[in-house]
Amino acid sequence: MLVADDDEDILDLVVFRLEQANYDVASATNGAEALTLARERIPDLAILDVMMPKLDGYEVTRQIRANDETRDMPVILLTARVQEADVTRGFEAGADDYIKKPFSPQELRARVQSILGRR
Amino acid sequence: MTARTLRQTAPVPPVETPARITIVVCDDEASTRQLACAALAGGNYSIIEAVDGNEAVELARSVRPDLMVIDMMMPGRNGLDVVAELRTDPEFADMPAILLTAHDAISHRDAAADAGADRFMTKPFSPLKLASVVDGLIRKRLTAQNKRLRELDRLKDEFIALVSHELRTPLTSIGGYLELILEEEIGGLNTQQRRFIEVIERNAQRLLRLVGDLLLVAQIEAGKLGLELGVVDLAKLATEAVETARPRADQKGIKLSLVCEEEAALACDPARLAQALDNLISNAVKFTPQGGHVEVRVSCRQGRAAIEVEDSGIGISPAERDAIFAPFFRASNAVEREIQGTGLGLVITKAIVLAHGGEIHVESEEGIGTTVRVELPLEQNDGSADPAAGGAT
What we know:
The complex is a heterodimer.
Chain A: E1 2-4, H1 8-20, E2 26-28, H2 31-41, E3 46-49, H3 57-66, E4 75-79, H4 84-93, E5 97-100, H5 105-118
Parallel strand pairs in A: 1-2, 1-3, 3-4, 4-5
Chain B: H1 2-9, E1 22-26, H2 30-40, E2 46-50, H3 53-63, E3 67-71, H4 79-87, E4 97-101, H5 106-115, E5 119-122, H6 127-182, H7 191-221, E6 230-233, H8 234-251, E7 255-260, E8 265-268, H9 270-286, E9 293-301, E10 304-311, H10 332-336, H11 345-355, E11 359-365, E12 369-377
Parallel strand pairs in B: 1-2, 1-3, 3-4, 4-5, 7-9
Antiparallel strand pairs in B: 6-8, 9-10, 10-12, 11-12
């Protein structure tokens, strides 16, 4: 599993919660790093913060979709922006789901499981 | 003395009277003043006369007029001095000024322009001409003011959205880590540690709610409140809202009851509608004194759902009845009693109700209680423009 967020406190929190649920987690603090990890490790799921320096979450999602090897990787966007336009933009970029900050660990786990179970 | 006491004790209610356009007419000759006033009488302006330059400056500083018509040649402080002096104050930098003079000399025109006058008219002037020049300058001024206000309003919305976002991110961390500690994943807590951390958590939640409300109000004001439609059982929604408010009601010894006729499927944005109901019920509990009652009634008739929240609270005075839906408005009796609040709950509630194509009505009697009635269509015509109706119309 890949998690990317430029806010390291939130990154650590998400990683902790996912490791707690027995997932193997790789983490990145910016979009470029996330994209490299996505291509190298081909994780089963990527959780990406929308607002990141260099490449934002939308752009990383778009590039994951544009690459043959990562095309089918499920992507969940993590966003503190809750306006409808932002959500629409996420889906247009090819995201499978989104989680609004702040999120509960239960919600995180439920969204991850539902996406992984769907495959 | 009475005026002074009044000024000190009167609260600051929102002034609802629309500001009239104010014009100062200054000339040492009464006949010219009368002629100018008569010329402008048809314009629905509030006109104030000044007999000399000193009075004109004094009046300008106290009433902040939208325009000034002033004689150039007056004993003492003349029109040029007045305009030149007012122009040094940023407050009057763009107040239109019309200078009147008996001599149409180039030197006078130049002097008028140098002092910062917008127009120059020779006496005797045509009343129609004066009226049309004034109307034109006022129109220009209002257009510029409107543009500036719209710009400020947009900046305010952007500011609120940005601040809300910047606050939400650290709050996500605070809440997330507190939750971890409270789950005792990283070690046990003693009773006191748990109690203290719960206090932090409760306040973080409160801050988060406030930020959420601010963000929502910014969206509402920008006309961008979107709905995520689903279908819920209205009875279940109401029951949950009542149970959310139950602990607070119990604390105050308030009898909180729900009267629900039957199950009814309601097409709506479940999270938003729950928020609207929570707001109404928590308001009712908040404004009801110890030992009172709050009753929530839900019914359906002819394709419409009605939700009524009745309390035996402090009520709202008739004078403030309309203001309660304005952002940040706090009723004076709530402020007096130091009842906490932001004045955002009802704004949000009304916008949510309107976005669903519904209506909201308030009946209230001070000291007796308040009933808020919300009516909603059971079905949403999806695809049609309905949700957009929640904008700042």
